[in-house]
Task: structure prediction
Amino acid sequence: MAKLEINRKQNLRIARHVAVIGAGWAGCAAATELASQGAIVSLFEAARTLGGRARRVDLHGHALDNGQHILLGAYSASLAIMRKVGINLDAALLRLPLQMVYPNYTDGMQFIAPKLPAPLHLLLALFRAKGLDKQDKLALARFSTTARWMGWQLNQDCSVTELLERFDQTDRLCQLMWNPLCIAALNTPPERASAQVFLNVLRDSLGAKRAASDMLLPKLDLSALFPEQARQWIEAAGGNVHLGTTVKHITPTAQHGWQLDFTSADTSHQQEFDALIVATNPEQATRLLGSNLKAETTRQLSGFGYEAITTCYLQYDTTLQLPRAFFALLDQAELQHWGQFVFDRGQLHPSQAGLLAVVVSASEQAIALGNSALATAIAQQLAQVFQLPQLTNPLWHQIISEKRATFSCTPALDRPDNNLGLSNCFIAGDYTKGDYPATLEAAVRSGVAAAKLCLQAKS
Result:
């Protein structure tokens, strides 16, 4: 905390009292950046748990997540801010080389990047890949080469499906690699997902240094991975974090600041602040800011569609362990195979031995089955693809569905800017204008950007 104290003393002249509404990853990032530059922060969160749509849930005696996540080595802003608040990244994240490995008893593939400098790691991974024939490998090499030559930019955005057709990608390569990567990264089916945003993610991972393509699996729950440590950082800097507190109204003041009306423990309060960052979802931002918004911003905030993500937790005997920490799965609705990735939580947390987490992105069709039927179908899928009959009958299961987990990342989507054109008021969230889809990295980047704008604004 010594560095933080020095920064506060150096920046005392710009110390401002800033309210941040929403303690998801964007709000926590904004509040952390503000605190590190000498601002006094009050962070408001309606829920009792920090993290927003990426948070801890307590199930059957385990601290789990409301959705299993993978981070990428390319997530520079997320990794930087975790380091800033004191997270030991080596202890908090399991770093694995880029890989797409399917269980042996499926018609899948095995693609694992070795620890070599880029792009040699991809070339050797492609040469060694199992389950792809010559045409598949040539198609993948052609895609990578052409995308680099284009600078990972399109003159006009289109769907990922159109992009893959334009690059003459084989059906098998699309099924086993591109479509799963698209759904995992954008949480939007490839036929309506933005090709440009998909290329942005590939540019910063496959098209960058080798470490950028690494897959990072959290060993800590998502609240402990950053938001809870951010809370300690903010409070050490003289700020406050208010959980279980709902902001009802915000009003501009004559001093170019903002008044917040909020309730906590059924008690109403009012407080004025020099500046404000609204780090809620678009609907809440619209409700709070109301008539203060420009018509264009209101249109942008109301223009999002949403996609669901479902995580199915299945607990087995503690002796169960998969050959790898995670596998890709073939999702085939006609076979009632809904799982797209399975994670062996016991390889991340020793206390969670025998616990598997299966992810279903863009999961509206799967959710329609109902929780019990979906869990049964996923257990049967695992038993079949791993040829382990005991996987049919877990000791317990739990389905967690975030029905509005991410915005639909469609082509040429018009996303709002952090700067609303209002005095000392900004927004932050993974949905704001930027290169990335709705990811933790997009949220952190947006939060940091909003904080910097706030610090630069005139009182």
Observations:
- Confidence is low (pLDDT under 50) at residues 1-14.
- The radius of gyration is 23 Å.
- DSSP finds 16 helices and 21 strands in the chain.
